[in-house]
Amino acid sequence: MMRFRLLLATVLIALASPTWAVQPDEILDDPVLESRARDISAGLRCLVCRNESIDESNADLARDMRLLVRERLVEGDSDTEVMSFIVERYGEYVLLRPTTDGVNIILWVAAPVLFLIAMLSAGLYLRQRGSAPEPTKGGLSAEEEKRLKELLKD
């Protein structure tokens, strides 16, 4: 029974791994260029599927982008030139790992800064809460009890 579970888990993990959507007719004859194309494609976002690379996506737009990458490589462009061309054409959103320069630095820095502010605020709150005087433990005064009984009678 244990072996069956292990086999089943292995099969499920294998099925859950990403499948490559690159079609045989897209693959370049030159293995070096194909390797470069795969490396570039792995860093480009499919604009239809969102958080999948164009290498993993079956969308028509992803196929067009893969073909465009390969076409540019065959023409002799460097990897940087290909990435620049794709970003110029589709925008910076196409990068799975956005750049850390310009306005994007705000996005990279904002999360850690906000986390530190939240932690400092929580620490100050807990410190003030710990030094606050304890509420009085006494009940109602005689006058308050009398007033309460009058209100409950009505």
Describe the structure.
One of its GO terms (cellular component) is plasma membrane. This protein has helices spanning 2-16, 31-42, 60-74, 79-90, 104-131, 142-153. It folds into two domains: 17-94, Cytochrome C biogenesis protein (Helicase, Ruva Protein, domain 3, Orthogonal Bundle); 100-129. The protein has 154 residues and is mainly alpha-helical. Helices cover 61% and strands 0% of the residues. α2 packs across α3 (60-74) and α3 packs antiparallel against α4 (79-90). The radius of gyration is 31 Å and the shape is elongated.
What's the layout of helices and strands?
Elements: H1 2-16, H2 31-42, H3 60-74, H4 79-90, H5 104-131, H6 142-153
**Annotated CATH homologous superfamily of the largest domain:** Cytochrome C biogenesis protein
In terms of per-residue confidence, which ranges show pLDDT below 50 for 5 or more consecutive residues?
none
Assign the CATH architecture of the largest domain.
Orthogonal Bundle
**What is the overall pLDDT average?**
84
CATH class call of the largest domain: Mainly Alpha
Number of helices: 6
Number of domains: 2
Please give the share of residues in helix.
55-70%
| Biggest sheet statistics | none
CATH topology of the largest domain: Helicase, Ruva Protein, domain 3
Rg calculated over all Cα atoms? 31 Å
SSE order, as H and E? HHHHHH
Number of distinct beta strands: 0
Termini separation: 73 Å
Which structural category fits the helices and strands?
mainly alpha
| Beta-strand share of residues | under 5%
Shape: elongated
Family: Belongs to the CcmH/CycL/Ccl2/NrfF family.
Region (Disordered): 131-154
Keywords: Heme, Iron, Membrane, Metal-binding, Signal, Transmembrane, Transmembrane helix
GO molecular function, one term: metal ion binding
